[in-house]
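dumping the sequnces here before i forget
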Amino acid sequence: MEYRCPECQGECTQQGEHWVCEKCHKTMVLQPLCPECHKPLEVLKACGAIDYFCQNGHGLISKKRVEWQPAAG
Ligand SMILES: [Zn+2]
Ligand SMILES: [Zn+2]
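..and the predicted 3d for all of it:
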């Protein structure tokens, strides 16, 4: 899924833990959410790959299905 910049609606690309707007270069920290229960996902890092795991019974969530929301703080 893609994330749109709240400032300019530009397309954002993920760079490690951060997302960067391609238009205004705003940097954001986003929290991955389960698309089923909308609860925060556990981030599993292994061998350079990142997996997202729902602890509420939805198991591994593929990166394409993850929902993103701005992290608190
Ligand atoms: Zn922007
Ligand atoms: Zn879930």
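The mean pLDDT is 91.
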